[in-house]
Design goal:
nine-stranded mixed β-sheet, alpha/beta, binds NADP nicotinamide-adenine-dinucleotide phosphate
Length: 514
């Protein structure tokens, strides 16, 4: 691992095509599932097309169902045809398909690992792979602990070994609360060293998310302004247009706080708020991110009512079409108290951000799908162009669009041409699509490649996952104690409930619509 160029080195060298990783096998537990079909297999295919996979690789799907290798290749091709960012090229596909295999495995049944082990031995021997393995747990979280303990019992894992290496990729969610997250982390830590573990939050693989650090620390214009002296407040919104869809079974037990805030939104917050790391070493960056999570002011007890708004969508419209309310959705209990929207006023109690509110907002059935971070700077002194109250100037706003239409914009004031001094807000706008042309790699492409080369910068470390849970737990506890309080609603297609408006307007600010 040590002689591999790190993300730091690659970033510093401006390199976009790192050397292919060493020969290896990827075992996808849950290889016949939705995630493998829609994301993992298309991502691996695109890495193959870009010649970023090792020359010798085996990708082995493992689920309970019986399937031949040929059937698994057809399953993969179907996923790639539907979900790959590039259309299938038959020549490229044939070479890729040769690396695909399937083995029936019941994760919770130790006996079935024998067949997996012998199949891996044969495949690796035939393909000249010396034993480097990545185990991807694309299965429900209840299977994470049985999977790792059976891997250990059947001696699939050489703890700490660098050659050959064994690495583990764990999907979210890591637990449903702090205790269950710890239990999962303990079970994994009993088998793998922390540096062998890659906890995926696919948000962190998005180009625009990676660009937050570049924007902040590769430009001298922004960093001097990112602090309480210049920033009025920060907003982070992750809005979904869709309702709960087919995910009610999971979502009704999770809700917006667990599904979006505990992971994606807090991760975005850490990137916007962290101190400049002393290097781009993965642990140095992750130390700084952890520091932000640990500096978040706890919101507990009665403070939850004042600083957090939860709500559920009621019937409304999606692009003019009537849609049902959350409690009428298939699979949702009629008296469900699960929040589909949450808005939070948070503070980071450190020197840099003292007193600067961070407004976090996420929800389903909002008017559009959009993830955006907005850094609103303070107003200029009321002396010149805005000396009287009739001539207010829009403050500068930096908005970082995570999705869609990835890019960022800076709102500035400009004089309208003409004899009078009339000021108009204009935007300097950067769009990834128009500047860099080619479609950006999907998050999973980047993340899978990073695991192959052993770079954990974009993955969540155990302490950070648990720190995030520690911060959201008192909010969940407060809600759990309020069994009789009515939950506010908002019409599907609106930007959330009135209460969310009041949360920010009571501070003299307002939500920015992405
Ligand atoms: N789908 C997404 O877009 C997405 C996004 C982010 C995170 N995730 C996470 O990724 C994981 C997988 O999600 P998914 O949507 O792919 O779920 P899924 O479609 O239900 O697939 C689960 C897979 O696990 C296999 N499986 C279930 N029980 C098993 C067992 N005892 N032994 C062996 N295999 C078993 C299933 O196949 P058999 O029934 O044949 O065994 C299936 O291949 C979950 O942790 C989820 O939270 C998914």
């Amino acid at each position: 691992m040590a002689d591999r160029p790190s993300l730091a080195d690659r970033l510093a060298a401006g390199e976009t095509h790192p050397a292919p990783p060493e020969p290896l096998t990827i075992v996808i537990f849950g290889g016949a599932g939705d995630l493998a079909h829609r994301k993992l297999l298309p991502a691996l295919y695109n890495l193959h097309v870009d010649a970023l996979l090792p020359a010798r690789i085996a990708i082995v799907g493992a689920s309970r169902g019986e399937m031949s290798d040929a059937a698994y290749r057809a399953f993969a091709k179907d996923g790639v045809s539907q979900f790959s960012r590039r259309p299938i090229d038959e020549d490229a596909w044939s070479a890729f398909a040769e690396a695909l295999f399937y083995v029936p495995v019941a994760i919770d049944n130790e006996q079935s690992y024998a067949a997996l082990g012998s199949r891996l031995d044969v495949v690796e021997h035939e393909r000249g792979i010396a034993g480097n393995r990545i185990y991807y747990l694309a299965v429900p979280p209840a299977l994470f602990a049985p999977a790792v303990s059976n891997l250990a019992r059947r001696r699939f894992v050489n703890r700490g070994s660098e050659r050959p290496f064994a690495r583990l990729i764990v999907e979210k969610p890591i637990g449903n609360d702090l205790d269950s997250a710890r239990a999962i982390n303990d079970a994994i830590a009993a088998v793998f060293d922390e540096r062998q573990i890659f906890r995926i939050d696919h948000y962190l693989g998005k180009e625009t998310v990676q660009n937050i650090l570049v924007l902040r620390f590769a430009n001298s214009i922004f960093e001097p302004l990112f602090n309480h002296r210049h920033v009025d407040h920060v907003q982070i919104v992750v809005a979904e247009e869709e309702g709960v869809g087919t995910r009610a079974g999971y979502y009704d037990r999770a809700g917006a706080l667990r599904d979006m805030v505990q992971n994606h939104i807090l991760q975005l917050l850490t990137l916007v708020a962290m101190e400049p790391p002393r290097s781009l070493d993965s642990d140095v960056i992750r130390d700084e991110k952890l520091d932000v999570l640990q500096s978040l002011r706890p919101i507990a007890g009665g403070d939850v009512d004042a600083s957090v708004v939860r709500a559920q969508y009621a019937a409304g419209f999606d692009a003019g079409t009537p849609v049902p309310g959350y409690r009428e959705e298939k699979g949702v209990a009629r008296d469900s108290r699960t929040e589909t929207f949450v808005a939070i006023k948070a503070f980071i109690d450190n020197w840099r951000w003292a007193g600067v509110p961070f407004f976090l907002r996420t929800g389903k059935r909002l008017p559009k799908r959009a993830s955006e971070i907005t850094v609103r700077l303070k107003e200029v002194p009321h002396i010149l162009f805005n000396a009287n109250s009739g001539s207010r100037l829009d403050p500068n706003v930096l908005s970082i669009r995570i999705q869609p239409d990835e890019g960022f914009a800076l709102g500035i004031s400009s004089k309208v041409p003409g004899p009078r001094v009339s000021i108009y807000p204009v935007r300097m706008d950067f769009h990834y699509g128009s500047t860099f042309g080619a479609s950006s790699p999907e998050a999973y492409e980047r993340l899978l490649l990073d695991v192959m080369v052993g770079d954990s910068t974009l993955f969540m470390r155990r302490d950070s996952v648990e720190a995030a849970w520690r911060w959201v737990m008192p909010i969940l506890d407060r809600w759990a104690s309020q069994t009789a309080e009515p939950i506010p609603t908002y019409a599907a297609g609106d930007w959330g409930p009135r209460e969310a408006g009041r949360l920010i307007e009571s501070t003299g600010r307002r939500w920015r619509e992405p």
